[in-house]
Structures are given as C-alpha cells and as structure tokens.
Design goal:
Helices cover 59% and strands 9% of the residues. The protein has 256 residues and is α+β, with helices and mostly antiparallel strands. The protein has a four-stranded antiparallel β-sheet with strand order 1-2-3-4, covered by helices on one side.
C-alpha cells in the first residue's frame, strides 16, 4: 500500500469518528486572507483542521460547561506516515503560552513515537489528555480558592458570635473610656446613672403632678374622715345607754 492510499484511508477513518470536528481543506473553502487555516495554491498535500477539546469527564458536575477547545491544522507530507505530519496550533483559546507550548511538545513527541503508522488519532488523544490535566488543575485551584473563602467566611461568623475576649488590659481600657464618658454627662444624667436620691425641690421640678397628687391625697383623707364620723354616729344611735347604765349598777350591788 503506497503512502497516498494510507493517507486517504486515515482521513476517511477520522471523518467517520469526528464528522463535526474535522474539516478537509480545499482551495474552494480556503480564505485567501487566512491561508494558514486553509490550503495554499498548488499545494496538493492532504490537509485538514481538527478541533480537539478536553473531555467532559475531566470537568466536575458543577462545571460541566468548562470545556477547553483548540483548533489544529494537520498536513500530510508525501512520505507520511514514514515521517511525522505537519501540525499547527491555530487557535488555543484563552490558554496561557506555557500551556500552548506544552501542547505542541506533546503532539510532536507523540508523532515521533508513532512514525511508520497512522498517528493522528493517537496525537489527538495525547493532546486531549494534556488539556484534561490542565483543566483538572484549574478546577482544583478554583475549588481550593472557594473552600478557603468559605472557611474564612465561617471563621469571621464564628468570631462575630464569640465577641471580643475580655482580658485585664482590655477591661482597664474599657473602664477608662467609660469613666471618661461618664464625666462628660450632664448633672441630670449623672444622677440617673449614679442612682442618687433627688431632693424635694428636684422631685417637684421633674414631676409637675406631685402637687396635684398631694391635693388628691388630702381630699381622699377628708373623705375617709367623713366616713368614719358617719359610721360613729350610726353606732351611737344603735347603742342602748340605759341598758349599759343598769348593768353597771347591778355590778356595783353585787360587789357590796
């Protein structure tokens, strides 16, 4: 089997596995202003772009949408697969340069290890593993940041619940501030804070109803005295004075 036939069979196999990710490049679908992503004039070598992404299994359930995608261009030299294919990373998305370099190195080393056989599928798997490792590291870092923020929030809430621990030094400082504030209070406020007894004049000044309450008390006393007088008169009316005097005479006679 010659090289051209092997190349055609490999591309056909890749198309059956990745019909949406692989695009065969032709003169017709090449953008003249972006030849790097297409095919140059008079270049008859088989060429195609392949979208290689991280697997969904590498993302946690809470971050299932976190998929890293890259776009690669493969060119089969006439001697392929006895030589490595040309590989170009066209689009690395937001990956940092260090990760881009690591991906290119992984692709090159994998191709060199598989010289003599169809290697695009194996190269693609190696690139995907590298993307998965980078994604998992990013997700782990995000998880650690989230857990640390949660611990800090819980610690802050715990400190709020505990309040400020009192020591001898903190109590002395508080007592000093309290005494200083107390000295700034008005005389009336000092009396309330210190619970000092008020004079009669101060009581009348602060409570204008005291004089009215005294008058009411006197009126209630007069009413009580009238009631006592009426009750005494009623008792006198019911008391039999003649019977009382007769009993006294009888007691004197008995004593003789």
């Amino acid at each position: 089997m010659d090289h051209k036939e092997e190349q055609e069979m490999e591309i056909e196999s890749l198309l059956s596995i990745y019909p949406e990710e692989l695009t065969i490049l032709t003169i017709e679908n090449t953008d003249p202003e972006n030849v790097d992503a297409g095919i140059a004039q008079l270049d008859a070598r088989p060429q195609f772009t392949l979208k290689i992404s991280s697997s969904e299994a590498a993302a946690s359930t809470d971050n299932a949408s976190e998929i890293i995608s890259t776009l690669w261009k493969f060119i089969f030299p006439p001697e392929y697969p006895d030589v490595i294919p040309e590989m170009h990373l066209l689009d690395a998305g937001d990956l940092p340069p260090a990760v881009e370099e690591a991906l290119v190195q992984v692709a090159t080393s994998t191709a060199e290890q598989n010289v003599g056989m169809a290697s695009v599928f194996t190269i693609m798997a190696a690139i995907q593993d590298e993307l998965n490792g980078h994604l998992e590291a990013c997700l782990e870092q995000l998880k650690n940041i989230s857990e640390r923020a949660k611990r800090e929030e819980e610690e802050a809430d715990r400190r709020k619940m505990e309040g400020t621990r009192v020591s001898v030094e903190s109590f002395i400082a508080w007592k000093f501030r309290f005494d200083a504030e107390r000295k700034k209070l008005k005389p009336k406020e000092v009396e309330l804070v210190g619970s000092r007894r008020l004079t009669g004049r101060q009581m009348f000044e602060e409570n204008a109803n005291l004089d009215m309450s005294d008058a009411q008390f006197m009126e209630e006393g007069d009413e009580a005295a009238d009631i006592d007088d009426r009750e005494g008169a009623a008792l006198d009316e019911e008391f039999d004075h003649e019977l009382f005097e007769q009993e006294l005479l009888n007691e004197d006679g008995d004593s003789d």
